Write the structure tokens for this entry.
Amino acid sequence: MADASVETTPQNLFLTAQDYETQGANLKASPPLRSPHDVDALRAALSAGLIDIVATDHAPHAPAEKAAAYAAFADIPGGMPGLQTLLPTMLRLVDEGLIALPDLVRMCSRTPAERFGLGRRKGRIAVGYDADLLILDPHQSSAITNADQVSRAGYTPFDGWAVKSRLTNVSCVAARSFATGGWSARRKARSSTGRAEPWPCSPTRPPSSPERAPALAAPSRSNSPPKGPISSSPTRWSSRSRAARAQSS
């Protein structure tokens, strides 16, 4: 039997093909959005523990790229931003009772770390593991807005969504990299300098000690429209061979 894992994205768990009518090209991605019935089935699989990983498929195309005139919808650059909104959208699923917080950690941290060869230093709070921590305040609410997005896309398909908790601090390999208001401050810094400075946990930052290697960067993915038919399934399958390619890239 093949050693396979099942992966999906927040957009496939929340959005349907009907959302193309209001957000158009901004939602062009692969796999494409499906019917409410398909989304319900995927959410049921998530709740039943059949989904191993929830990832972002982060592809922040500039607004001009999405807004340009194309001969066909299939020619629009595929993908949408999702990195910054992964946590709040997953917390929405927790709020709905579809999953619990430990499920969020399993699908977004522990299993990806184990799957891609980082399981001995990432994905757990334990002695010897990197101190990659998110601190949430469940007594404060927050909102997802276009104005707070720091990617080159400058938008999110989840603009205006409310979340019943707030991210207050982030620690990445023991280096504090975020505090309340940090996203907006970083966006202002980018607008004044033309680029965003790397976070302390960025792979481009030198390791804090000779024996501590920086986190591995995720392999890049092509954002070009698929040459063949788009997959009919809202989920994506990955194998050990993909993990091996990711580690060697």
In short: Residues 183-249 have pLDDT under 50 and may be disordered. The chain has one domain: 4-248. The first strand starts at residue 4 and ends at 8. Residues 101-115 form the longest helix (15 residues).
